[in-house]
Design a protein that fits this description.
The complex is a heterodimer of chains A (about 290) and B (about 300). Chain A is built from eleven helices and two strands. Chain A is mainly α and about 290 residues long. Chain A has one domain. In chain A, helix 4 runs antiparallel to helix 8 and helix 7 packs parallel to helix 11. Chain A is elongated and about 90 Å long. Chain B has about 300 residues and is an alpha/beta fold. Helices cover about 40% and strands about 25% of the residues of chain B. Chain B is globular. Classes of the chains: A mainly alpha (about 290), B alpha/beta (about 300). Chains A and B meet through strand 1, strand 2, helix 2 and helix 5 of A and strand 1, helix 2, strand 4, helix 3 and strand 10 of B.
Chain lengths: ~290, ~300
């Protein structure tokens, strides 16, 4: 407990009763922070919903684009790879393989990039209200998850309706835990990056290149056997969580095989560690986000 | 209103104690001759680091004061004197580089710049703003009509906010922020944007806060507003806390200071400023142990 001293006279002494007065702007304990976040859950969901709705407002068709965008991009892939080029690159059901890869990876790209910019893009909100700032990256990731619902449905419809048709098995439900783990992982990475992008905005510029590199390491549009001769790349891919998500969805939807226990474990570990580290790092910087 | 309260002697319970805070902004300096020609830009590039060295601007310097229950405090000062920074520090939006702010409850800041999501309707923005301040859906439903009435918006409440005039936007934001029944209300220039009807409503709102033993801070360039609504005034200049007194006294000294500066007699103006600053009683705080510690 420090006592402030001033040399000038006359001095007035003000007693501070900490029972009545609290320090303003001080970051709460980590557990209190989590409780505060939980208390703001309706804010998080409302913010996410409002932004999903308003995201396409300037277009004539409005929210219909939430469905139209994945349908059109799926049709484009079908037109080029299924009808014009008719390649398979040695992959069984290449159209399904490609669409699952592209759609799933896009979910992570959008969520991670938006999460990383959650602090720089919401300065007005941050300066207007006092709330746990981690609500922002969480709201953005919930928004991406919500707008990913039509994308996932369209993706599965393409797998059903484009030749070769796949049989629907109980394994299709394994898509849900895979996407949930992907959501957790995206959230964690977004929370780790957001304070960094606020401090060094240049990181935001680099992010799109890093995401492209990441895409090449996720076997989105080529066979994962391509790197069989390069053990280093193969190992990196085996520990690439987004690739593991894509692989799990492909296995359960296209190849009617359950993803291995090892893949689930690695993926769950990545998701849990990313969220825990993200929350901790984000919480530690909480006091600095209001600065100009 | 107790207009004769002597600053420094505190009868009522304090709601805000500001203990020796300082705020320093760090910005990048851009080379001065950037716009002149291309060669100078190349020269600037060659010089390298020297052109983009960070500059430190002191926005607040060792500011201390105590605000009490029922106080309505006007803050005056020239542009860039640190008034808005002080409001942001009080609201907990900026953490001071040194010093501490203690408050009885979370102060709510009403600023003109606080924008919400402009592509959604005013009604949705009300809900969003209230949720951000920690209200529940049920509490918002109960207060929704009051907020709309306070904002003075009618059918426009269901139009997207980017179709609002700046005055309408400011009124809506005032209404949202006033909805939480804050014990400590910070108003930053918001009163200058509204029409006469809105000014009356917001004055009534501030009176209500002070009558419920709360505290209001108002930043305004209109000295008349401060003299007519406040019982106490602060004068801040270039980050220094110059004076704390009744609005009339402070307004008189401030006007005479500005007059001297404008007359060209700046030295005399600075002398007034220095004398007033020196006559401020120094403040020190002692922390009473809180109940949790005392009970052990």
């Amino acid at each position: 407990m420090s006592i402030e001293e001033k040399t000038e006279m006359p001095a007035v002494t003000v007693p501070i009763n900490l029972k009545r007065l609290t320090r303003i702007g001080q970051r709460p304990d980590f557990l209190d922070y989590l409780v505060q976040l939980w208390d703001r859950r309706s804010f998080i969901f409302f913010d996410a919903r409002a932004r999903v709705q308003s995201g396409n407002e300037k277009n004539l068709l409005g929210s219909a684009w939430l469905v139209l965008t994945p349908v059109l991009s799926g049709l484009t892939f079908y037109l080029i790879f299924g009808l014009l080029l008719n390649t398979s690159r040695g992959i069984e059901n290449f159209i399904g393989y490609l669409i699952i890869g592209v759609f799933t990876f896009q979910m992570s790209t959008r969520a991670i990039v938006a999460g990383a910019k959650s602090l720089t893009g919401n300065t007005a909100m941050i300066r207007a209200f006092q709330f746990p700032r981690a609500s922002l990256p969480i709201a953005i990731n919930v928004r991406e998850l919500l707008s990913n619902v039509p994308v996932t449905i369209v993706m599965l419809l393409f797998v059903i309706f484009t030749a070769p048709a796949e049989e629907i098995t109980w394994r299709w439900f394994l898509v849900l835990p895979a996407i949930f783990l992907q959501f957790m992982f995206n959230l964690g990475i977004g929370m780790l990056l957001a304070p960094l992008v606020l401090k060094i905005p240049d990181v935001g510029m680099l992010l799109s290149f890093l995401m492209r590199l990441w895409m090449y390491a996720s076997a989105v549009f080529f066979s994962d056997h391509r790197f069989d001769n390069y053990p280093v790349i193969k190992t990196i891919m085996d520990f690439n969580p987004i690739y593991l998500v894509i692989k799990s969805i492909r296995n359960s939807v296209l190849y009617a095989t359950s993803p291995s226990l090892r893949d689930w474990t690695v993926l769950a570990l990545f998701a849990a560690v990313a969220v825990a580290a993200g929350l901790l790092v984000f919480w530690r910087g909480e006091e600095s986000y209001g600065r100009v | 209103m107790d207009a004769s309260r002597n600053p420094g002697i505190h009868l009522a319970e304090p709601t805000v104690v500001v203990d020796d805070i300082s705020v320093v902004y760090r910005t990048k300096q851009q080379s001065g001759s950037r716009t002149t020609s291309r060669t100078s830009m190349l020269g600037a590039l060659r010089k390298g680091k020297a052109t983009s060295s960070p500059v430190r601007t002191t926005a607040l310097k060792n500011v201390s004061f105590v605000a009490n229950q029922g106080d309505s405090i006007g803050v005056i000062g020239r542009n860039g004197s640190g008034k808005s920074t002080l409001m942001k520090v009080l609201a907990g939006l900026i953490i001071p580089d040194a010093g501490t702010v203690y408050a009885a409850s979370n102060p709510i800041l009403l600023g003109v710049n606080a924008a919400l999501i402009s592509s959604i309707s005013g009604a949705q923005n009300i809900r969003l703003g209230c949720l951000a301040m920690g209200m529940s859906h049920a509490q918002i439903d109960a207060k929704f009509n009051d907020i709309v009435e306070m904002s003075g918006l009618e059918d426009e409440i269901y139009h997207p906010m980017n179709s609002y005039s700046s005055g309408m936007g400011a009124r809506l934001r005032f209404a949202i922020a006033a909805a939480v029944d804050p014990e400590i209300l910070l108003v930053d220039e918001a009163l200058n944007t509204g029409d006469a009807q809105f000014k009356e409503r917001s004055k009534a709102r501030m009176k209500q806060v002070t009558s419920q033993a709360g505290t209001v801070f108002i930043v305004s360039h209109s000295i008349e507003t401060i003299v007519s609504t406040c019982n106490r005034a602060f004068w801040i200049d270039k980050g220094d806390f110059i004076m704390d007194g009744t609005p009339k006294e402070v307004a008189k000294q401030y006007k005479s200071f500005i007059w001297r500066i404008n007359e060209g007699n700046a030295d005399y103006g600075r002398k007034i400023r220095a004398e007033l600053m020196a006559s401020l009683p120094a403040m020190r705080t002692t922390l009473l142990p809180n109940g949790w510690k005392r009970s052990r």
